[in-house]
Amino acid sequence: MTLAELIQLGGSVVAVLLVVWLVGKMGLGADPRIEDEAHAIRLAEEAEVGFGGIEVARDRAGFAAIVRNAEGRQMLVRAHGNHFAARPIDGQVIGRLDKDFLTLTMPERTFGAVTLHLGKDAGMWAARMRDLRCG
C-alpha cells in the first residue's frame, strides 16, 4: 500500500467516525420510549400547554400512550422518528379493540394508526372511545 493510499484510508476512517459521532449527537437512530406515566403527561403538556393529564394508559413497550385530563379529554402520544408526536383523541378517531390491544386510527392519515398493548385495561379505554363517538 502506498503512502497516498494510507492517507486516503486514514481520511476515510476519520470521516466515518465523524459521521457516527454527529449522528449520535443529533439523536438520530435513537429508539425513543415513553418511560413512565409522568413522562407521558409531560409530553402531552408539551403538545398542549395546560392539558393537565391525570391518567395514563401506556403501551407495554413504551412507544405510545393515551393521556386523559380531569375534563375527560384524551390525547394520544406516540414515538415519531427520534421524537414524539401528540394528537387529541375525539369522535373522529376510530378505536378497535382486540383482546389486550387497542388500535387508534387518527383522521390525519400522515399520523397513522397506533396499536397500544394495554393489557386488561384495553377494554376500559376502548369504552372511553365509544363514549367520545356518542357524546
**Helical/strand content category:** alpha+beta
**How are the strands of the largest sheet arranged?**
1-2-3-4
Instruction: Give the helix proportion (percent range).
Output: 25-40%
Q: What distance separates the N and C termini? A: 76 Å
- Radius of gyration from the CA trace? 21 Å
Number of helices: 3
Low-confidence stretches: none
Largest sheet: 4 strands, antiparallel
Number of strands: 7
Give the helix/strand layout.
Blueprint: H1 3-26, H2 37-47, E1 53-58, E2 64-69, E3 74-80, E4 83-89, E5 94-98, E6 101-105, E7 113-117, H3 122-134
Antiparallel strand pairs: 1-2, 2-3, 3-4, 5-6, 6-7
Can you tell me about this structure?
The chain is an alpha+beta fold and 135 residues long. 36% of the residues lie in helices and 30% in strands. It has three helices and seven strands, in the order H-H-E-E-E-E-E-E-E-H. It has helices at residues 3-26, 37-47, 122-134; strands spanning 53-58, 64-69, 74-80, 83-89, 94-98, 101-105, 113-117. The strands form two sheets. A four-stranded antiparallel beta sheet has the order 1-2-3-4, sandwiched between helices. A three-stranded antiparallel beta sheet has the order 5-6-7, with helices on one face. A hairpin with a 2-residue loop joins strand 5 (94-98) and strand 6. The longest helix is centred in the N-terminal third of the chain and has 24 residues, at 3-26. The radius of gyration is 21 Å and the shape is elongated. The protein starts with a helix and ends with a helix. The model has no long low-confidence stretch (mean pLDDT 89).
